[in-house]
Amino acid sequence: MAENIIIIGGGPCGLEAAKTLRDLGYAPIILEKKQELGGHLRKWDRLFPEGVQAKQVLKELTSGLKGIEWHTSVDIETIEKSRKGYTVTLSTGVSYNSPALLLTNGFKLFPAEKKEEYGYGIYDKVITNADLEQYFAKGKDNVIKKPKTIGFVHCVGSRDEKVGNRQCSKVCCATAVKQACEMKELFPDATIYSFYMDLRLFGRNYEDMYLTAQKKYGIRYIRGRVSEVSEDIDGSLIVKAEDTLLCKPLRLKIDLLVLMTGIVPENSSASLAQQLNIELGEDGFYKPKDTILEPCMAENNGLFMAGACTGPKTIPETLSEARAAAVQIHNYLNKSWISGIL
Amino acid sequence: MDFGYSLSKSSTMKIENLENSKFKALAKLEPDATKCIGCGCCTASCSAGVFADMSLRQILLSLQRDCQDKYLPMLQNCMLCGKCMLVCPRGINTRHLILSICKIYGIEQ
Lengths: 342, 109
Prior knowledge:
The structure holds 2 protein chains of 2 kinds.
Chain A: E1 4-8, H1 12-23, E2 27-31, E3 46-47, E4 52-53, H2 54-62, E5 69-71, E6 76-82, E7 85-90, E8 95-98, E9 101-103, E10 107-109, E11 126-128, H3 129-138, E12 149-156, H4 172-186, E13 191-196, H5 206-215, E14 220-223, E15 228-231, E16 237-243, E17 248-254, E18 256-261, E19 263-265, H6 268-276, E20 303-305, H7 315-339
Helix pairs in contact in A: 1-7, 4-5
Chain B: E1 13-14, H1 21-29, H2 41-45, H3 56-64, H4 83-87, H5 94-104
Helix pairs in contact in B: 1-5
C-alpha cells in the first residue's frame, strides 16, 4: 500500500507537490484550511509577464487529482512527532499519520488598513492590488468608474520597518507594471502614475514589461514613496510624495489609488513553527536548513517546506520548489527505509 | 511696503494641473523620450557638464512634470558631442532627443 504524505496547504505549491508525490508512488493527503483549493491564485485574474489567465493555471493545478486525498475547511488541532514520523490531528478528532510532513502554507497579503496614512478602508477610492484583480476578473466595481488619473503605490507593507516588514515582497513591482498596463488598456485616456522606491524587475522578460509600460502605455514612473493620502471635497484623492529624481515635493489629485500590498507570513506559520520547533527568520518566514543548498528542508528530520512559506516567490518558482520538495521527500524516505530509521 | 521678509512660494509641484501637450508632441517626434530610467549616465559622461550645468536626465524629467523653465537653459551648454548616446543603457538617441526638445520648446542651439 502506498505511504501517506501529509501536505499542509492546498495552494499551487501543495497541489503541485501532491501530484509529484503521487507520481512517485505515494498517497498524498492535502489539508487546506480554506473552503477551496487553489490559495491566492483564486483571487488573481492574469499573471505576469505574459498575462496568462490565472483561471487557466488554477484549472490545470486542480484537475487530475486522482490518487490524491484532500480535505478543505480543515482546522489542525495538534501535530505530534514520533519515531515513525508525524501525526496530525484535526479539530474533528480525525488524525493522519505520515512518515514525512510537507509545509506549503504560503503567505498572506499585507493588510493595507494598517498603513493608515494611505487611507485604505477610510477613503472609497483607495483599493489594493487584490481588489483590482477582482475587478479585472469580474469586469465591474462600485468604485472604479472611468478614472482619469490613476496612481499605483509600490511597497505597501514591504521595505517598511514601521510596520515590522523590512523585507522586499519581490513580486509586487512586476504586478504593478502589469496592472498599470491593463488599466491603460481599459482606460486609454487615463494618465497613470506609479510611485516606486526601486523597480525590482528581476525575472526573465520583466524588464521588457517595464519598457512596454513606459513606451507603449506611457505610464509615468515617479521615484518617491507616497507619504500621505487625503480626500478632497469632491471625493477625489490628494497624494503627497517627493519626486526624488527632481528633488521636489509634489502633490497630485487622482481618481483611483491602487496600493501594492506586499507578502507577509501566513498567520498559521507562527503556531506551526512553535508546534514543530521550526526557527523563524526575523521576517517571520520559516528558516530552512540551508538557504542555498537545502531551501526545502527543515532542521528536523522528515520535515519539509516549499513555496511562499519560506519567503515571497513567483508561481513558477513555487511550483519548482514543490517538485523539488517532493523528490527530496522521496529520497529521504528511501534512505530512511534502507538504513532502517523508519 | 517692505517689511524685510516675504512669504516664499511653495515649491510643491501640482501635477494635476499639468499641461502636457508639448511633452506629447516631443514623444511623438522622438518616442524614446518616455524610455529614460533616470540612471544618470548621460550627466556623468557629459563633456559640457564638467564646466557648466548640463543634465539631460533632469531636463527630460522636468519636461514630463512641466516644470522645465529652470532646466531648459542647460541645453545651451550641450555641444552635441554624443557621449551620452554611447553610454545610455536604454539606447536612447539622445542627439535626436536634444534636437527635438530644442525644436518643440523653441530653444536655439
